[in-house]
Amino acid sequence: MRIKWLLLRRGKWGYIPFALAWAIAQLHGQAWVSPAVWQSLAEKGKAEVLIVHRDTSFSLPQGYLTKEERGRMVYEVLHSRAERVCKATESLLTAKGVFHRRYWIVPLVVAEVDAELLREIAALPQVQEVVLDRAWRVARVQVHRDLMEWRDTVIVPWGIRHIGVDEVWRMGYRGQGVRIGGQDTGYDWDVPALKERYAGYMGDTVIHDYHWHDAVREANPLNADSLNPCGFGLRYPCDDHGHGTHTMGTMVGALPDAKIGVAPEARWIGCRNMDRGWGKPSTYIECFEWFVAPTDRNGLHPDPTLAPHVINNSWACPEQEGCRSEVFPIMRGVVERVRMAGIVPVVSAGNSGQGGCGSVRWPAAIYDAAYTVGALGPNDSIAPFSSKGPVLSDSSGRIKPDITAPGVEVLSQLPDSSLQKWSGTSMAGPHVAGVVALMISANPRLAGQVDTIEAILNRTAIPHYAPGDSCTTPSNAVPNNVYGYGVIDAVRAVQEALRWRSVHTDQTEQRPCASTFRSHDGGIAIDFEQASSMRSLRVYDLTGRLRWQTGQLDKGTYLRLKSLPPGAYILQWKQGNQWCTRKLVTLL
User: Tens digits of per-residue pLDDT, 88-114?
Assistant: First the structure.
């Protein structure tokens, strides 16, 4: 990952009147406006903003849903809701002749406003807050990237061998039938390692509709100039840096003499979210949204059935790019809804590990909904640059990363077709995204089952401990804030995926399915009420393994399952002719 070092800007008396203006606005019932917006208005007379609208939560029906069902439901609900709640804002902007763009994955509108228009927008009842969507120009940005010219003859790179991917290939699973998404600096689709794996490649023809999207339409001010080598608003894939092509090569790349990709028979689609390594909140949000329902090259006719199974995110959104604390909840909602749509969001932890504990601090790696990946070296020790938890930037204290994977001297291809070794958590994340593709290839019914996929990865990882660098977790704890659940093991993950079967019924669950579940004495206590006849109680873990079962149950039956360790379980029983399913989490 390209490291974007945070350069702090401190102490401006101008913040006080901006804060005062905001406080006065609240007294008049207006939406909250970020002080950074007022500052931009004072300096430039205009501000590029995210106009965030009031939102409500929703949940999907219980039971097994296919990935296509999940994606369609999420798209239909969110799109119609955003269209409704953003209507007044869009009407105002249209009347003023202001170009704007509406997003539906969270209901927000992006526009450039002046102070007068901002006051009108903030007074609209559906508007919740207005935050800045613009990177702050900084004087100097340090970039870290370990790069080595590749001179050796390598058949299978060390990372692929280290986690057992080559053994999974011998089992016959190479990513067949799986779509991998990547948002990055773009992708050079026709380099030899990627060309035939591009979902738009049809041999004699190439179709970019539904396979490519460019969210970058202007130069980012964090770059020294506006001379992007690809240009902006592209209708075909291009990589303006090389970073994206390298990461995609680790996911799907293959050459006759270099088997660089974890899932070489998966197909890939891509979105550019950065201008030469620098983005902003709206470009990241736009790519996430496009992946949930890819569109043609004109941004029309979205189709959730063409969404990828997994998205690799080898990037971070630091404060310089506009991801201040007020943006954290917005980005969190986006990642949660990507996950709800049945897509696994794999995110690199970041390259700030030399800063010590608490260095996983930027979206999207900080979120519980993201599957966050740290970087491992060939000696099985954590890479010095790999960011560590706990997450302090949002005050959650959650353990991160979730898992670790090879991220040092990783071999892949660049846009000029050269093979080079790079180091970073950006190189670790693609290994995990590739293993997800192998799991779904082995068991297609896992498609869309994000919780289950992550549970399998966590349970099959090889535990690693950090006695001298525990970062608030005990020295023998798993997960911990250095390695997460441990080092990913492709063979064990695929073997577990093959054993998984979904817990579901074709019959629609109806009331009553009356029951009370609770944690009790180290196991599960189950009290059934209002039940005349219950039978066939089964208890599954989240990987689909049957852990306990019994036959006939009667009213008042009380069962205690002491043998089950703390964790999440699925309980399924039959009541009359209907199946009932509940999720239960047992406590320590």
Answer: 999 999 999 999 999 999 999 999 999
Catalytic residue among 133, 184, 188, 239: 184
Contacts of 254 (CB under 8 A, 6+ apart): 193, 197, 260, 261, 264
Mean pLDDT (whole number) for 14-23: 45
- Name the catalytic one among 426, 431, 441, 541: 426
The whole-angstrom distance between residue 478's C-alpha and the CA centroid of its chain comes to 22
Report the chain's C-alpha Rg in angstroms: 25
Q: How confident is the model over 175-222, as pLDDT tens digits?
A: 999 999 999 999 999 999 999 999 999 998 999 999 999 999 999 999
Amino acid, single-letter form, for residue 341: A
> How would you class 219 by CB atoms within 10 Å of its CB: exposed for 0-12, middle for 13-18, buried for 19 or more?
middle
> 393: exposed, middle or buried (C-beta count within 10 Å: 0-12, 13-18, 19+)?
middle
**Amino acid identity of 495?**
Q
Cis-peptide into 479, omega within 30 deg: yes
Exactly one of 53, 211, 243, 464 is catalytic; name it: 243
DSSP 1-54: ------------TTHHHHHHHHHHHHHTTPPEE-HHHHHHHHHHS-EEEEEEEP
Q: What is the mean pLDDT of the chain?
A: 86
Report the distance separating Cα 316 and Cα 132, nearest Å. Answer: 17
> Order of strands, edge to edge, in the sheet holding 534-541?
546-553, 534-541, 567-575, 578-586
Active site residue 243: yes
Write the secondary structure of 425-491 as one string of H (helix), E (strand) and C (coil): HHHHHHHHHHHHHHHHHHCHHHCCCHHHHHHHHHHHCECCCCCCCCCCCCCCCCCECCCECCECCHH
Residue type, 297: R
Q: Enumerate the β-bridge partners of residue 524.
A: 519
Please return the burial class of 214, using the count of CB atoms within 10 Å of its CB with bins 0-12, 13-18 and 19+: buried
* 470 is annotated as an active-site residue: no
* CA pair distance 25, 402, nearest whole angstrom: 42
Higher pLDDT, 515 or 372: 372
Whole-prediction pTM value? 0.83
Give yes or no for a contact between 270 and 180, defined as CB atoms under 8 angstroms apart.
no
CB within 8 Å of 148: residues ≥ 6 apart? 409, 420, 421, 422
91 as an active site residue: the answer is no
The CATH architecture to which 146-499 belongs is 3-Layer(aba) Sandwich (3.40)
Tokens 């201040």, residue? 324
Place of tokens 């202001």: 98
What CATH number matches the domain at 516-586, 3.40.50.300, 3.10.290.10, 2.60.40.3080, 3.20.20.140? 2.60.40.3080
Domain ranges of the chain: 15-132, 146-499, 516-586
Better-scored residue on pLDDT, 276 or 29: 276
CATH topology of 146-499 equal to that of 516-586?
Answer: no
